[in-house]
Known about the structure:
By secondary structure, the chain is an alpha/beta fold. Helix content is 59%, strand content 14%.
Amino acid sequence: MLNIVLFGPPGAGKGTQSERLIDKYGLVHLSTGDIFRANIKGETELGVLAKSYMDKGELVPDAVTIDMLRSEVLKNEAAKGFIFDGFPRTNAQAVALDEFLKSLNTEISLMLALEVEEEELKTRLLKRAEVSGRPDDANPEIIQNRINVYNNETKPVKDFYQSQNKFISINGIGEIDEISNRLYQAIDQLNN
Ligand code: AMP
């Protein structure tokens, strides 16, 4: 299996690039943010809970997020592999994902981290708000909080994969195609 963690701060381009990767490699895309938003739309209990955190730019608690992710993986047992987009976002999530994949006799192949500087992220998110309709993209204070949460809680997850020699940093600035090609190169090196 090819299991990729597509990593990076909010606005780094994870969603856009995930679409490219699923097409090219035939993977299942699991975006925890998208799954939460689908639950909000469907007015589920999980959606109501998630919304109370997402609206503030805070992380949804680990236990809830991990349980949800596990059940999404199990729904796709025949998958050739997964792209985890927006997960793991804490060390506890990374540890839980490793244990869970091990129980399925598989593992993370690679973490690809899209690197984009903070000012560019803020510009991109405010622009995205015009089309995404996401309340957490439209408010500069919430954007700042999401970036702070990324720096404090999520960024350290890099070290977890670096210590397993699975971490690759990718320049997330440039044309979309150009960035996709950087990702393909990193993945293809793994397969060869
Ligand atoms: P995203 O679509 O990845 O930007 O995520 C939007 C929001 O969903 C985040 O700001 C968090 O509130 C929540 N979220 C998404 N993924 C996770 C995760 N792995 N752990 C905790 N909260 C998450």
